[in-house]
TrEMBL record:
Coiled-coil blocks: none
Highest taxon of the lineage: Bacteria
One Pfam family it belongs to: AA_permease_2
Name of the protein described by the UniProt record: Amino acid transporter
UniProt key word Membrane: yes
Gene Ontology cellular component terms for the protein in this record: plasma membrane
Molecular function terms from GO: transmembrane transporter activity
Transmembrane segments: 12-35, 41-60, 81-100, 132-150, 162-181, 201-223, 235-254, 283-304, 334-354, 360-385, 397-421, 441-461
Keyword line: Cell membrane, Membrane, Transmembrane, Transmembrane helix
Organism: Kitasatospora gansuensis
Amino acid sequence: MRKSIGMVDGVVIAASSTAATSSIGIGLGLTAGVVGLHLPAIMLLAFLPVLGIAVAYGRLNRVEPNAGNSYTWVGKTLNPWLGFLTGWVNTVGTIVFMAYTTAVTGSAVLQLAGQAGLHSIAGLALDPDSTLQTTLLGLVVLAAATLVAIRGLALAARLQKYLLVFEYAVLLGFCGWGLLAGDQPFSLEWFNPFAIPSMDALAQGMVLAVFCYWGFESVFTVAEEVHDPKDASRGGIFALVLMLLLFVLAGTAFQRVLPLDELADNGAQGLTYFGEKLAEQPLAALPLIALTFSAVASLQASVIPTARGTFAMGRDGTLGPVWTKIHPKHGTPAVGTVLLVLIAASIAVLSLVIPTVTDLISAAVNAIGIVVVLYYALTAVAAAVRFRHLLRDEPLAGLRVVIAPLVSAAALLGVGGYLAWSFWNSADHFEVSAENGWFQLLVPALMIGTGLVAAGWARWVRKSPYFVTGRGTDADSVELAPSV
């Protein structure tokens, strides 16, 4: 793959993958339903372990930039099975994310159509909370995003840059306006994590908030295509800090404008409702347009790093050689990109058994949040083990690169484990519902279980040398398929 991007492009890819506008638009309402009026507190609290994870990613990337990133690092440092599982759950989690983001994108487009006065087509009423309508429309957008991703990183980053400028201008404008114009009394208790109502609320709120930060590491997946590996590290940290500022600002502004019941009840339409409370049309449509742009950018930004991850796994022989085929003109893993999108589209169609977009989002976010906690923690432990000598040689660097990631990993595993336990105890039967704890656990269990089966296939059927050496390869070490 070609080295075609710099630090600014890396920031754009990381920020687009994190998708702050989408997280704010649909995630703050879900999170408020869990933690109450403590959105700023939970966002600040979740940032601390995620920052420790980001430091681990940055240090590992400096010494070994690799398209497989955590998959390669964990396999080499800890255990090949854990490394494969890290890559697998990351890939599958992102595919599930793409599947439900198609519905989010379609919902945003239908909301825009409604605000423009288009409420039905050929007698069919347009419903932005219908998973059938929103998924079908979102799949069309996903196909377009895939074509851009195949054309190359430079084009994708350039397009995402323009989308981000518009999104952030709208977010900053409306959130600043909300801080000044809101009629809900401001309270410092909003920033107090000890005021969160229960341990269950704290655990689920932390997982939801970590999910909101999820995606900053996508810049490390394109590290082999960055001119300087240090730019990937700088880009990831910069994007993460930017997300913190936006989340705290938006959480505070939302609580200044919306009472808790309105904030929690609007789910996937949270940002739209916020805009309508502050402004009349056509200005009130701007946050919804920004949400639409964010959903489109996050779809594209999800396709790009995931295709690089499967490229690295195919390069190691843990996945089939089809994932390593590079487009002869654009220098991108085109076949893998298309395959991932087809799998995501299939899951999106299967998810139609969940009737509303809000329920679909709730089920997907909790499932992905649990597996994100797992592979973040494994990456942090890999960094601590790999650089443990710094505790003796450079104590200050050791605190940053060894102790901070270890503490962060322990914190994330603690809240993730507690949340899984609370889901298990919250139900006495299984049903396909976002409210059913056993269903909430089924998706991450399937992600991990299929990962173990796929690892066994790669180890004993494919006989991948990765499971013997634990070492991932880089772009120059093997002969890759030259074309599609």
